[in-house]
Write a structure and sequence with these properties.
four-stranded antiparallel beta sheet; 4 helices; 21% strand; elongated
Length: 151
């Protein structure tokens, strides 16, 4: 058999790409290694480009487009009879509990602020810094409400 497209990788992006190609009439083959604990399975289906440690601005824009695309994809899958996919928008709570987590937490905050300045997303009001006022050591925390959870 011949194919119009061969997709390598059955994670969120690969599976969605294969679906789009099939819907457009392309003969499509999806190949996946099915590695245990890797890629989509390791991420538990969470799409959160704003908090990712990947520095590439191109990757960030791609991942942000994937998050924005997902509700439309889910609606189309439902219309095609795919049933409940388990998709649900969710929030993310990031916490630095100990002093050794303070630097990575601050670096993540700076990445988010850079992405806000460069891309206009996430919106400035989307990240809420929760400061704890206490003599006891309490975590620094930030809540980012615009990510997507997939099963």
């Amino acid at each position: 058999m011949t194919y119009d497209a061969i997709i390598c990788g059955g994670g969120v992006v690969g599976a969605a790409t294969a679906y789009e190609l099939v819907c457009s009439g392309a003969r499509t083959l999806l190949i996946d290694r099915a590695d245990t604990g890797r890629a989509t399975s390791a991420g538990a289906g969470i799409l959160s480009p704003a908090t990712s440690a990947i520095e590439s601005l191109e990757w960030f824009r791609f991942a942000q487009a994937a998050v924005e695309y997902y509700p439309n994809l889910i609606a189309r899958l439902n219309a095609d009879g795919a049933g409940d996919t388990g998709y649900a928008p969710c929030s993310e709570l990031l916490v630095a509990i100990s002093e050794d987590e303070d630097v990575p937490f601050a670096e993540m905050q700076q990445r988010i602020l850079r992405r806000q300045a460069q891309c206009g997303t996430p919106p400035a009001a989307a990240l809420q810094l929760l400061l704890c006022r206490s003599t006891a050591p309490l975590p620094a925390a930030g809540r980012y409400p615009s990510c997507a959870c997939l099963p």
